[in-house]
Amino acid sequence: MSRITPFSSPLLLGFDTMEKTLERLAKASDGYPPYNIERIAPRDGIGDRLRITVAVAGFSDDQLDVTTEENQLIIRGRQVDTEERDYLHRGIAARQFQRVFVLADGIEVLSAELNNGLLSIDLARPEPQRLVKKINISVRD
After folding, report:
1. SS3 at position 122
2. Do the Cβ atoms of 118 and 56 come closer than 8 Å?
3. How far is C-alpha 59 from the geometric centre of its chain's CA atoms?
4. pLDDT per residue over 26-78, tens digit each?
5. Residue 112 in 3-state DSSP?
6. Pick from 71, 75, 125: which is nearest to 100 by CA?
7. Residue 123 near residue 110, CB atoms below 8 Å
8. Which H/E stretch holds residue 109?
9. DSSP secondary structure string for all residues of 23-77
10. Model confidence over 98-141: pLDDT tens digits?
């Protein structure tokens, strides 16, 4: 039995990687840490901008890592559990996380800032350029 997907139309050519990306995102639906994505008004000659804000309370800047790999923005947090503390109650666990955002082609990471337990990452989305290209038709006799 064959599986029907949104990209199975013969008119959609080259979208197989997008389909794989959507499947991977559906599997990685862990809700930790929570985050916001907002649109920022254009300024300083930079067009449409986005800001991802991740709640990383308890993490210091040296415990966080923000990288881009191919078309992914990867945010990792690593806390080390110290054995020298004697807890009477432990409700805050030292935990690790990895949050991955898939970026569209051309999106650039401008900056990352940690302030009051919130990690803000600014992204720039360039204006799409309309490109029309004439394809010559050759005729064979």
Report:
1. strand
2. yes
3. 19
4. 666 567 899 999 998 877 666 789 999 999 998 999 999 999 998 899 999 99
5. strand
6. 75
7. yes
8. strand 108-115
9. HHHHH-----S-EEEEEE--BTTB-SEEEEEEE-TT--GGGEEEEEETTEEEEEE
10. 999 989 888 999 999 999 999 999 999 877 778 899 999 999 87
